[in-house]
């Protein structure tokens, strides 16, 4: 039985994706909410008298509807949520003029202000969940953020709605998706259309005065997006930030003055809460775990607060964002959401409640947390937090029993002890439950790891046997026996793990559901089949020995490329190396370029007549200069991300003219360099259209006035149209060339190194080569890069094009490295380009604004595609160049494609297999969510990009082979 190398490769690719998918499902389980809503039906008694049990609270089996909750302090609530509101925008000494009215309220003690720390990921949807439900969303919510669905967990909004209160909402439509049917009046705006920072807020503000004048509202929620959009476009130092914050300050003033006047005729006052859902990184994005992203301000404003004159506290008390839900619930007379992990903010309770009501509020909050503890921790009775809770109840009972007879001093001491014990117990219970929520499906993760390691081993065997088909085994009966044995062994292992007593049961693979059974059968058969193929392959010892012996004859450059690739993979074991991964790629690419320069220079000195070595020396010297500029253009990573760089200088408003000049110069360099490959006037038009788009959006200048559309939508669509026309033209030329090959008209279309640029025919008589035609793919991608990347990164495109001309056009042919080494060099260059754009292993550096260029409305699929193209523009550019290189420099392109595809597959399978093991071992590491988990998502996405390029390469070379009637394997 023989298995072709192509079939083995395809099996490995499919298995790799299944393995990664299973591992991610086990590592990022979607948290299932406990259904239902908290009520007042099962509240505990105050801990005194005969109504209490030994634990100090009413039995859960004895409902007591007459037990009163905490008396409400506020009758109405106004939430002003300013997306991406950094703490220093409100409290910072250098930003005191950003929000003068709010600062005045802070100065005269008319507010209660705090710093709220959010749990990663710092994106909108998980943060709204945290604010309203008091729960800690999972890391995978960063993906679900782009497709929000109704919130099933108990939450503050649903509690108000269930009590018949009237809720008005205006702003980010994520709220309307999370709470459908909850708002009596609502008007939503999309949070993803980041190029708009004016209308998106005006659409909210126009509802403020009409809503305030409506006497029937109980809660008014305003979610402003403009500041977040400005951050994505220009960062926290953008000149647009100051006027936007002053605009927000004026809205706060309008609301405060209106409700203060209305409170005079109301029984209960109104509470205004100014807050942010997350902060903003120094680069202007969010999603990571830095202080600027996780710490946001919370300012409570009310006429009920006793004003205390004094300066603004430079460091307000720090609370957790999840503490908002229980705080508002208790102050507004609502049940605390049953899954909440928040602790009511002590200052807010102390300032607004009597001592008895304060203790009652802490008791209810502690009781609710104890119920969550019971659901998530098996031995909760001995837990330190639960023991502290019982102790607090006893202090509380003592205070209630003796408050009438004891002195006021004794009463205050006992009540203070009870309060401190309640707060201590709640923090301990919250920490315990939060740590228990990170429940990994180790069974699913293990299956994923097994699949990925089997794939890695099979890919290693496959690349060692490229010259002949893979011999699985020569005996069909033996093949069936081996396959059956492996599947049986895998199945027995799976069933044993699922039924083992005391073992963690996999909800994905062991649950009594049809979906779990299908997954189990499929994975057992797949892993058993892969194991059978691998065991059969291990019998080919001679072939493996020959393969490994071939590495004893590789050149020094090839050795460095191989060792560098393996070293990079091993470096991922360190969180610091993950955070600063760009340094590794810069070092590797610069080192191999410098070594080539030294080698070429030595050849020139030794053989002065070696013209090719002279050209290579000049090319590598140019490449070194370009690489150094690329490295300095955008600071990334963690340690030096806030350091000034070239890109930061160009994006300053006062340097707009310089940015315009550099962008125009970059586009000229791109076009001239591309003309060496092939002139393309559509590329020239697209570059001009991209410049006009940035001019229309106000990012660039033109020496003369030029009419432009609103938000540059028309200009962007001109570029998209040119991309579509170029793609159509490419398909037509490609088809004609293949037809020429099919009809064996040798001279009409050449596939190989005999480039038309080397012929002596006049230009208009030269037949196109496949490599020449594929250059149009490169032009198409450059068109998209010019449009999607930010203006200051236009130089990145120009330098990347020049670098390709130097490295691929001159250096690689001169070095004469093997194809696998050439492939790895392309991968290195692509990864270096990825980080040179300003990307990192933090979600915060993803530029989602690229997904909405030219869009007048949010379309999920298109926005995702454009964002992916923008983020991975550098790696894609080098993958396209690799495809062209193979087509132009290798006669037997299909065999070359197989070798390149195996190399690409191994380049992704190796780091994935090793990194997933490291992540599994480090799953309780301090930085697992801030460092290791984002990198895992980047690894997965990078694998998708490389696999897409690999499949395109195989399809292209397969079609060429079929067209030429190539019989070789």
Automatic annotation (TrEMBL):
The UniProt record lists the keyword Transmembrane helix: yes
All residue ranges annotated as the GPI ethanolamine phosphate transferase 2 C-terminal domain in the record: 545-944
Keywords: Endoplasmic reticulum, Glycoprotein, GPI-anchor biosynthesis, Membrane, Signal, Transferase, Transmembrane, Transmembrane helix
InterPro entries per the UniProt record, alphabetical: Alkaline_phosphatase_core_sf, Phosphodiest/P_Trfase, PIG-G_N, PIGG/GPI7, PIGG/GPI7_C
Signal peptide start-end: 1-19
Main location: endoplasmic reticulum
Any GO BP: GPI anchor biosynthetic process
Example of a GO MF term: CP2 mannose-ethanolamine phosphotransferase activity
Segments crossing the lipid bilayer: 442-464, 476-497, 517-538, 584-605, 683-704, 716-735, 795-815, 858-884, 905-924, 936-960
Pfam annotation, one family: PIGO_PIGG
UniProt topology in membrane: Multi-pass membrane protein
Name of the protein in its database record: GPI ethanolamine phosphate transferase 2-like isoform X2
Species name: Acanthaster planci
């Amino acid at each position: 039985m023989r298995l072709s190398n192509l079939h083995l490769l395809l099996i490995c690719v499919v298995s790799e994706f299944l393995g990664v998918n299973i591992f991610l499902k086990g590592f990022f389980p979607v948290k299932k909410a406990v259904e239902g809503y908290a009520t007042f039906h099962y509240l505990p008694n105050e801990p005194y008298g005969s109504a209490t049990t030994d634990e100090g609270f009413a039995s859960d089996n004895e409902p007591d509807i007459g037990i009163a909750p905490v008396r409400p302090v506020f009758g109405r609530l106004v939430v002003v949520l300013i997306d991406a509101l950094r703490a220093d925008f409100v409290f910072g000494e250098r930003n005191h003029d950003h929000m003068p009215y709010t600062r005045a309220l802070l100065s005269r003690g008319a507010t209660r202000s705090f710093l709220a720390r959010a749990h990663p990921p710092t994106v909108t949807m998980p943060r709204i969940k945290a604010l309203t439900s008091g729960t800690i969303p999972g890391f995978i919510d960063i993906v679900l953020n782009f497709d929000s669905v109704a919130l099933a967990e108990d939450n503050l909004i649903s509690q108000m709605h269930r009590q018949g209160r009237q809720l008005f909402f205006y702003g980010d439509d994520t709220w309307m998706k999370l709470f459908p049917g909850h708002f009596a009046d609502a008007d939503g705006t999309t949070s993803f259309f980041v190029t708009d920072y004016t209308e998106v807020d005006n659409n909210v503000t126009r509802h403020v005065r009409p809503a305030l004048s409506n006497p029937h509202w109980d809660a008014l929620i305003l979610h402003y997006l403009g500041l977040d959009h400005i951050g994505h476009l220009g960062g926290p130092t953008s000149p647009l930030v100051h006027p936007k914050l002053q605009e927000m300050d004026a809205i706060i003033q309008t609301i405060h003055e209106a409700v203060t006047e209305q409170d005079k005729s109301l029984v209960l006052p109104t509470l205004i809460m100014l807050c942010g859902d997350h902060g903003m990184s120094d680069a202007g994005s969010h999603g990571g775990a830095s202080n600027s992203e996780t710490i946001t301000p919370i300012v409570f404003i009310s006429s009920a607060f006793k004003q205390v004159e004094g300066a603004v506290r430079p460091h307000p008390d720090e609370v957790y964002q999840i503490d908002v839900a229980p705080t508002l619930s208790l102050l507004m007379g609502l049940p605390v959401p049953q899954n909440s992990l928040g602790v009511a903010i002590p200052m807010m309770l102390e300032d607004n409640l009597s001592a008895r009501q304060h203790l009652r509020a802490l008791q209810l909050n502690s009781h609710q947390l104890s119920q969550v503890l019971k659901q998530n921790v098996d031995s909760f009775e001995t837990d330190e937090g639960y023991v502290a809770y019982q102790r607090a109840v006893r202090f509380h009972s003592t205070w209630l029993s003796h408050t009438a007879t004891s002195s006021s001093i004794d009463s205050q001491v006992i009540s203070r002890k009870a309060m401190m014990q309640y707060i201590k117990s709640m923090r301990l219970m919250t920490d315990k439950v939060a740590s228990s929520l990170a429940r990994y499906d180790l069974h699913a993760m293990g299956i994923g790891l097994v699949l990925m390691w089997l794939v890695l081993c099979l890919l290693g065997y496959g690349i060692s046997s490229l010259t002949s088909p893979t011999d699985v085994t020569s005996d069909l009966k033996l093949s069936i026996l081996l396959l059956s044995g492996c599947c049986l062994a895998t199945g027995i292992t799976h069933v044993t793990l699922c039924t083992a007593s005391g073992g963690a049961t996999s909800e994905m693979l062991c649950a009594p559901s049809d979906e779990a059974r299908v997954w189990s059968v499929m994975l057992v058969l797949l892993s058993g089949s892969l194991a059978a193929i691998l065991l059969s392959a291990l019998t080919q010892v001679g072939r493996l020995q020959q393969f490994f012996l071939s590495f004893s004859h590789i050149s020094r450059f090839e050795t460095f490329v191989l060792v560098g690739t393996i070293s990079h993979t091993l470096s991922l074991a360190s969180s610091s190396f993950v955070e600063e991964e760009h340094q590794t790629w810069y070092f590797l690419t610069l080192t191999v370029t410098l070594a080539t320069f030294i080698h070429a220079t030595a050849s020139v000195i030794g053989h002065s007549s070696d013209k090719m070595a002279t050209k290579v020396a000049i090319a590598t010297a140019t490449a070194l200069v370009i690489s150094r500029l690329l490295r300095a253009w955008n600071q990334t990573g963690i340690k030096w991300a806030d350091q000034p760089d070239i890109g930061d200088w160009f994006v300053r408003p006062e340097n707009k003219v310089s940015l315009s000049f550099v962008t125009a110069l970059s586009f000229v360099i791109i076009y001239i360099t591309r003309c060496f490959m092939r002139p393309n006037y559509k590329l020239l038009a697209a570059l001009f259209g991209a410049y006009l788009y940035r001019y229309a959006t106000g990012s660039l200048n033109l020496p003369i006035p030029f009419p432009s559309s609103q938000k540059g939508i028309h200009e962007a669509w001109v570029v998209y149209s040119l991309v579509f026309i170029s793609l159509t033209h490419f398909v037509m030329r490609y088809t004609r060339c293949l037809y020429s090959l099919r009809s064996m008209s040798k001279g009409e279309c050449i596939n190989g190194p005999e480039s038309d640029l080397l012929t002596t025919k006049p230009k208009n008589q030269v037949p196109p080569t496949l490599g020449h035609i594929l250059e149009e793919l490169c032009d198409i991608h450059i068109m998209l890069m010019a449009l999607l990347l930010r203006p200051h990164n236009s130089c990145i495109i120009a330098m990347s094009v020049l670098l390709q001309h130097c490295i691929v056009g001159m250096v690689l042919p001169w070095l004469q490295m093997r194809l696998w080494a050439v492939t790895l060099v392309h991968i290195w260059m692509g990864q270096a380009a990825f980080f040179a754009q300003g990307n990192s292993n933090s979600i915060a550096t993803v530029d989602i604004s690229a997904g909405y260029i030219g869009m007048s409305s949010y379309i999920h699929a298109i926005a995702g595609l454009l964002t992916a193209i923008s983020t991975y523009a550098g790696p894609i550019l080098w993958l396209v160049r690799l495809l062209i290189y193979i087509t132009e420099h290798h006669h037997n392109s299909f065999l070359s494609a197989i070798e390149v595809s195996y190399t690409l597959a191994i380049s992704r399978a190796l780091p994935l297999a090793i990194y997933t093991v490291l992540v599994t071992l480090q799953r309780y590491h301090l930085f697992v969510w801030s460092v290791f988990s984002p990198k895992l998502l980047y690894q997965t996405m990078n694998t998708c990009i490389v696999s897409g390029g690999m499949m395109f390469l195989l399809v292209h070379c397969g079609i060429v082979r079929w067209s030429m009637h190539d019989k070789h394997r």
